[in-house]
Design goal:
The structure holds two protein chains of two kinds.
Chain A (H helix, E strand, L loop, with lengths): L2 H18 L6 H13 L13 H12 L4 H9 L6 H8 L1 H16 L7 H16 L6 H22 L2 H21 L5 H8 L5 H17 L3 H23 L12 H19 L6 H18 L5 H14 L5
Helix pairs in contact in A: 1-3, 2-4, 3-4, 3-7, 4-6, 5-6, 6-7, 7-8, 7-9, 8-9, 10-11, 10-12, 12-13, 13-14, 13-15
Chain B lengths: L2 H12 L5 E2 H8 L3 H13 L3 E5 L2 H7 L5 E5 L1 H17 L15
Antiparallel strand pairs in B: 1-3, 2-3
Helix pairs in contact in B: 1-5, 2-3
The chains are: A mainly alpha, B mainly alpha.
Amino acid sequence: MNRQRSDELLAPVLAAFTAAWPAQDMHAIHNAYQVALRCHHGQLRKSGAPYITHPVEVSKIVARLGARREVVCAALLHDIDYPTNRLHDQFGPRVAAIVTGLRRLETRDDTAIADHDVLLLKLADRLHNMRTITYLAPSKQRRKSEQTLRTLVPLATNLGVDSVGRELSDLASNVLRQASPVVPRLSATRALGLAAILLPRALRARWLAEWAGELAILPTRMARTRFVVHLVMSMPRLARTLRHPNSANVEGAGGTLTRTVGQAIAASAGIAMAVNVSMTWATAIVALGALTLATALLFARTDEPARRLRELIDAWRGPRPR
Amino acid sequence: MTLQTQLVLGALLEEPTRERYGLELCDVVGLASGTIYPILARFEQVGWVESTWENPTVHEAEGRPRRRLYRLTSEGAEQGRTALARVHRAGKQPRTSWGLAGGQP
């Protein structure tokens, strides 16, 4: 990076510092910057920007909060891998202590013993990372945001830097709020909607509305899952009943055929609903494929396909105790 | 008549004028949703049961979607009782074929 460009990067930091500490000499800040520039040469952030932009932004944040020169220097140096004594020799005991304190905090995550400057730096570091968090994997984003809300926002309040706390809170909440669509679990309504394709079209809406009403009063997710899984399993039976009103009297026997077919369907939908993992559309398509298969079997002229499917399922399941 | 169907019919006959939600019947009879709804659908088809949406004032006040209520009809009460009696008379004989006897719903 040429001299002119690097001066541009540091200029806002110097401006913020001078605003808070007008008479103070900024030689040390320039030095810290040059050392950081050298150490981070060739390194990149996840966003692809030169790594130096991060310590510069962090130092800008603390400078704007009116931090002392040592804290601003420590901010510029907080990610270089100088050992403590080298920091001590070049920048003095205070800067060395702050950087070392931050490193210790990162490994032990114990805010109780860290001093005010270290904690301020930690907050500023996290603030810049949260501002640029979109370059991280979604699961890391969630984890960092949860930790931010849990630990760092209260910390910011304790330190009296409310603006930082508010921004951290907003950024973290934003991530967590948007996180839900990233983990789409097959919802009860969607599972029923899929299975209800088997029902006669004219009656579909009535049944789906009815089940929506029942789902709304079920108290737990477990109860809702149970409700839906059983329904999905029996959808072929319900479909047959609705489509063939004269085929059997009330006193007719239930169909083992349709029960088998129902069990074949229930696997994907039930597992996808009950298990706490992200639901991919592949699973939905498998479920839909199974439903199509079930439809074909329902309206088959002979029992042959159903019997073969039954054998397949039994073979897959293995021998069951009688 | 399957055992499950008998159970549902029995539960309905216990309080013939009472309107019940589907889930209520699941609890009372002790069967799962997938078992109850096909049975209720069958009863509805043969006119033994009628279903209606619950009163809007009820669910609107509670801020939830409406639920369906099921009630035994008079034919359902009469014919259901007869059918159950027939089953009990038949006792523990093994079921053979369930032919469509004349005049049955």
